[in-house]
Amino acid sequence: DIVMTQSPSSLAVSAGETVTINCKSSQSLLSSGNQKNYLAWYQQKPGQSPKLLIYLASTRESGVPDRFIGSGSGTDFTLTISSVQAEDLADYYCQQHYSYPNTFGAGTKLELK
Amino acid sequence: EVQLVESGGGLVQPGASLKLSCVASGFTFSDYWMSWVRQTPGKTMEWIGDIKYDGSYTNYAPSLKNRFTISRDNAKSTLYLQMSNVRSEDTATYYCTRDETYYGYIAYWGQGTLVTVSS
Predict the structure, then answer these.
(1) Which of A11, A14, A41, B94 is the most exposed place for a label (fewest CB within 10 A)?
(2) Nearest partner of A41 among A11, A65, A3, A71, judged by Cα
């Protein structure tokens, strides 16, 4: 199984700050066939189900604000949230869908300082 | 609007069986791979498995393969998860999800149904 290591586990921020969440996979998620990275990011607000934010490592889902930026390739990926807003306080998870079984990172809890 | 509505959760005794359902609407159910994902009380996310759009193929997390079975009824736009010999560690919120067609990431999540395994 591909192990997804996500860090930090929690992050306390002030509104307006830029934050970075890291996700490292134990194997490359880059497909040699199409040069795409099979890595997704999800946001889960308190009491809600997760929601897709970013897919293929860097493509924002429709309707997701452009302050959410996904980057990285191979085994190292980053979710950057620029100018954090109160509505961004949530848990964030990365997931690889490169090979079965699909696996998730342990999550990052974004809290207000 | 895509909607996935799970049901069937509740309190169940260790060793028992339970079948979860997920009714889909807002899209052509028979066109999509579907999956189940669970989230423990400690927030750990675990992919359970998925099923091909016509029900002819399934994949499972190896640790769950012997006890969990995913099926679907395209005529009823319904996805199922049959759980057998449940254990306390199966206590979780179970989500029905719709996979993106080509790349396989999870595009939509249901609201989840809570399963609590306890005597």
Answers:
(1) A14
(2) A71
Q: CA–CA separation, A100 vs A24, rounded Å?
A: 17
pLDDT tens column, A10-46: 999 999 999 999 999 999 999 999 999 999 999 999 9
* Min Cα separation A99/chain B (Å): 10
- Spatial separation of the C-alpha atoms in residues B12 and B94, rounded to whole Å: 14
- Euclidean distance between CA atoms A100 and A1, whole angstroms: 7
In B, which residues are within 8 Å of A106 by CB distance?
Answer: 44
User: Which of A52, A56, A101 has the CB atom closest to B62's CB atom?
Assistant: A101
The tens digit of pLDDT for each residue in B39-67 reads 999 999 999 999 999 999 999 999 999 99
Calpha distance B96→B38 (Å, rounded): 9
Instruction: Test A101 with B61 for CB contact under 8 angstroms.
Output: yes
